[in-house]
């Protein structure tokens, strides 16, 4: 199964992050689903992640990662030089997650909220799981 990014479909920052990943995941291994959709909710439940989580969720090899662990594991799939940031996985999560939580808590205030999601192109659509 391909790795899956579960993202906040209403968050401008999260949607821009998805666009960033789409452009830099050259092998197109990563698929996407919104946390608010049926597929996202089903995957959260399947992997024991609470519904309403305030984090990106990355599912890889049957395991769900959240917060900075999710973001840094996603970086492993990006083209150079972006994958270099995955080196921060060596930093203990309690240290990494502090900064992550500040951004997550303020993302709507700093980046805004969308009323509707951007429609993926025909090529991108195959990488978004059905809702």
Automatic annotation (TrEMBL):
Superkingdom, natural source: Bacteria
GO molecular function, one term: protein-disulfide reductase activity
InterPro entries per the UniProt record, alphabetical: DCC1-like, DCC_oxidoreductase
Name assigned to this protein: Thiol-disulfide oxidoreductase
Organism of origin: Pontibacillus halophilus JSM 076056 = DSM 19796
Lineage: Bacteria, Bacillati, Bacillota, Bacilli, Bacillales
């Amino acid at each position: 199964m391909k790795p899956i990014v579960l993202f906040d479909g209403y968050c401008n920052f999260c949607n821009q992050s998805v666009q960033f990943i789409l452009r830099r995941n050259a092998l197109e291994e990563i698929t996407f689903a919104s946390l608010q959709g049926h597929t996202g909710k089903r995957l959260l439940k399947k992997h024991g992640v609470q519904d309403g989580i305030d984090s990106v969720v990355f599912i890889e090899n049957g395991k769900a990662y959240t917060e900075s662990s999710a973001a840094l594991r996603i970086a492993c799939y990006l083209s150079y030089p972006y994958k270099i940031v995955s080196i921060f996985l060596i930093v203990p999560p309690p240290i990494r997650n502090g900064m992550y939580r500040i951004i997550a808590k303020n993302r709507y205030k700093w980046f805004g909220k969308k009323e509707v999601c951007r429609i993926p192109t025909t090529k991108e659509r195959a990488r978004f799981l059905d809702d």
